[in-house]
Amino acid sequence: MHLPTYVGLLDSSLRTLADAFRQVSEGHGEEPDVHHLCNVLAGRIDGQVETLAPIVRRYGEKREQEPEQLYAAGLRNTRSGGLGLLRDLQDLYMLSSFVEMTWTVVGQAAQGLRDRELLHIVHSCDEETSRQLQWLRTRIKQAAPQALIAAK
Fold first, then answer.
1. CA atoms within 13 A on the CB side of 143
2. pLDDT tens-place string over residues 15-52
3. How many whole angstroms separate alpha carbon 110 and alpha carbon 119?
4. Entry pTM
5. What pLDDT is stored for residue 74 in this prediction?
6. What is the pLDDT of residues 90-126, one digit of tens each?
7. CA–CA distance, 145 with 97 (Å, rounded to integer)
8. Which residues, 6+ apart, have CB-to-CB distance to 28 below 8 Å?
9. Rounded CA gap, 95 and 89, in Å?
10. Are 102 and 48 spatial neighbours (Cβ–Cβ below 8 Å)?
11. Which domains does the chain have, with CATH numbers?
């Protein structure tokens, strides 16, 4: 069974995403909404990690390096200014999309296993990840005109 690979991938990608949200929060403190919401979202992702813990214990986990590689490539440091904010938000969107698809894959396995607990966790956490993506998409749309057209 390869589910432990995806459980490990999910656990690792959630931790990476929470760290990335915190980094963007700190790096863009001049944007109060970004600073606050990124911290809130990081906390919610921490909650997902805690919620996933019994599944990690049940199925085990095989650690993969992809989320850390995504993080290292996209968020070594936060960028400055409006364009930097736009690019950092895009990086968060990419990481969040990775998490969302990983929840989907794990959810398919949960259906195959008829694991009701895992199905419930996947459903609630995937909904939350979708809300993160929705906020990021909206905030990217808000930042794009200023960063790309009005900036000097």
1. 20
2. 999 999 999 999 987 888 999 999 999 999 999 999 99
3. 6
4. 0.88
5. 47
6. 999 999 999 999 999 999 999 999 999 999 999 999 9
7. 23
8. 34, 35, 38, 78, 84, 85, 88
9. 10
10. no
11. 3-143 (1.20.1260.10)
